[in-house]
Amino acid sequence: MVATVGNAAREGELAWVELELSAGRVAGARGQGPGVAELCRSILGLTPLGAAAVPCEPLAGDALHDALAPVVAAPPDDTRVAVAMSGGVDSAVALLRVRDEGRNPVGVTLRLWVDPAGPSAERVCCSPSAVIAARETCHRLGVPHVTLDLREDFRRAVVAPFVRGFAQGETPNPCIRCNGGFRFAQLLAFARRVGASKLATGHYARIREHRGRLLLARAAAAEKDQSYMLARLDPRRLERIEFPLGEQDKAATRAHARAAGLESAERAESQEACFLGGADYRDFLARHGVRGGEGPIVDREGRELGRHAGVWRFTPGQRRGLGLAAGSPLYTLRTDAAAGTVVVGPREALARTTVRARPGRLFVPAERVEAKLRYRAPATPSTVSATAHGFTLELDDPAYGVAPGQAAVLYEDDAVVGAGVISSAA
After folding, report:
1. Confidence at residue 117, expressed as pLDDT on a 0 to 100 scale
2. Do residues 344 and 319 touch, judged by C-beta distance below 8 A?
3. Closest by alpha carbon to 131, among 155, 97, 104, 107?
4. Phi and psi of 397, rounded to 5°?
5. CATH match of 1-73 with 3.30.70.330
6. Which segments of the chain belong to CATH 3.40.50.620?
């Protein structure tokens, strides 16, 4: 007999559920809170996955899924697919695609830490309301849904390095750290636990064979391509991953959701790091321990032109917020966190032709690549050479605003052949 307890709180109300599992089924269930008694009666005799498919009131569902998360498991099934559910339209349509192919989806949502002081903390992906939306989508389609509460793990693995990076004068990209390591590691572990042969997500990317191995590749719709954010995924994991939306654009996704009558069809998508909760990242950093008082803004010769309120508020290429009156536009060239200095100059002084990435890896041997150095920047033809712990790029044309902490993603045709974290540029 295995016992497990789940707790939940929402808008001042509390709920708890205690389950007893015997021979892989719910042998006993009890608890308190709105909708809990009815839910406990309805799941008796079911497997944990069967219980995860029972529609329920939000608070009761939160408590049940808190109890199910550590114990849910199932034997291997080649038809079962774990589908990452964010509560948005992309993941909902990925689920539909899996189901319509005759396979057996299991929805899984990661509840991640979101800054409670953010102005939109309840509306971003991974928030409590997003968890409910994901669960309701699954239950409407008759699909089990499990929520994994990983708030503290996420805070340690993704949020803390983000804060630390800015404090050290870098411009880190938390979404790449999350997707390239934390998120997919957790999702694949869950898929294995419930016996799923594959993990599907609503990302716009593809997987293709390139030079003898499976590699991540750009999506068919260039305007939605998310391969840059996924680039640090270990290619060895790709044989267990699917991107059902990789061949279509957003309009087709929304049309599919409308045809299925899903509420998520018109839901807006999040545009920033989810844990910011809709806040400006500078306000977030100020609330979460990044300190550093006023210091000088200087030109390339070291002449003071003004003052700033913290070097972490500036990143290479930034023009707005300098507060300087000058005859020609000035841009942030670099920052020195140790000295507390922001160095500014004309745009041409931002030009960089050598970029070093450490850590980084080449997934296949490569020499000529297209290097993408920011999410919204165009890729630049480059020559790449491997180093002991990363790689060096020699760009055919100068790049502007290259920032340590951002990702350097390397493409050969559409395939991602390497990725790393920018450590320096010259």
Report:
1. 81
2. no
3. 107
4. -125, 150
5. no
6. 75-202+244-291
Structure tokens given for 54: 């029972």
The fold for domain 350-425 equals Elongation Factor Tu (Ef-tu); domain 3 (2.40.30)
Active site residues: 178, 274
Q: Write out 139-181 in H/E/C secondary structure.
A: HHCCCCEEEEECHHHHHHHHHHHHHHHHHCCCCCCHHHHHHHH
The rounded distance, in Å, linking the Cα atoms of 64 and 47 is 13
Three-class secondary structure of residue 216 per DSSP: strand
pTM above the 0.85 mark? yes
pLDDT computed for residue 143 by the predictor:
96
Instruction: Report DSSP letters for 252-311, one per residue.
Output: HHHHHHHHTT-GGGGPPPP-S-GGGTT--HHHHHHHTT-----EEEE-TT--EEEEES-G
- What pLDDT, on the 0 to 100 scale, is given for residue 326? 77
pLDDT score of 116: 83
Cite the residue boundaries of each domain of the chain with CATH code 2.30.30.
Answer: 293-348
CATH number of this structure's domain 75-202+244-291? 3.40.50.620
Handedness of CA 16, 19, 25, 28 (dihedral sign): negative
Count CB neighbours of 399 within 10 A.
Answer: 24
User: What pLDDT score does 271 carry?
Assistant: 59
**Long-range contacts at 123-126 (CB < 8 A, ≥ 24 apart):** 123/278, 124/270, 124/274, 124/275, 124/276, 124/277, 124/278, 125/86, 125/87, 125/88, 125/270, 125/274, 126/86, 126/274, 126/275
- Please list the ranges in the chain whose pLDDT falls under 50: none
Topology adopted by domain 293-348: SH3 type barrels. (2.30.30)
pLDDT of amino acid 294: 86
The helix/strand/coil state of 109 is strand
What tokens does 217 get?
């590749």
